[in-house]
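User: Hey, quick favor. My workstation is busy. Could you predict this chain's structure for me?
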Amino acid sequence: MGRAFEFRKERKLKRWGHMARTFTKLGKEITIAVKQGGPDVTGNPRLRALMAEARAEQMPKENIERAIKKATESKQGDFKEIIYEGFGPFGIAYLVEAATDNNTRTVANVRSYFNKCGGSLGTSGSVSFMFDRKCTFRVKEKEGIDLEELELELIDYGVEELFEQVEVDKDDNETKVIVMYGDPTSYGSIQKYIEENGYELISGGFEQIPNVDLKDVTPEQRATLDKLTGLLEDDEDVTNVYTTLKPEE
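Assistant: No problem, here it is.
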């Protein structure tokens, strides 16, 4: 298994946390996708993937409609996707993705979280070289599928890594899921394969995968880092937080 598998092991355990925050994050991403590609899902593959994810997360229909409407209202401020880079305590690198209509507010908040926990907000390029941006898809596993054969076939579509994981929903129901990673430029071709071959798409998007050795810390140090990560993740403007911290065993 590659780096994406190790990265996913950590993230699937703490996936977004609170339902309300999940809906806020998805709503912003839907608004941005509509602004960039229009409200017609037929010609907007990113929006199609987000709609599938919204259904999987049982996001209320009115929340989805509100996010789409927001993209078409001229009086609404434009959400911009911004990446903040910094270092937490103990030399752990942080890459923070946000969707904000007020960068002044968001950067001030993000800086305050770093300062509060003994870290510092860095400049552009200070840690981004430690991460590789990848497109990622989650689909429901088909009965009797051969993962090795599927991976070989998908290499031609740009998939670099593929593996299976079992996900548990809030009702403790288990679902076998196939996770795929590839170069961001392969997003469209991978999604097209998924849709044309009858796979049920759960989510599709982009993630930052650490390309350096992850750093281990003591339990006490981890508690401080968890506090910083929690402050960042609880901010309404923040959509994703990535670090070079080694997952807890």
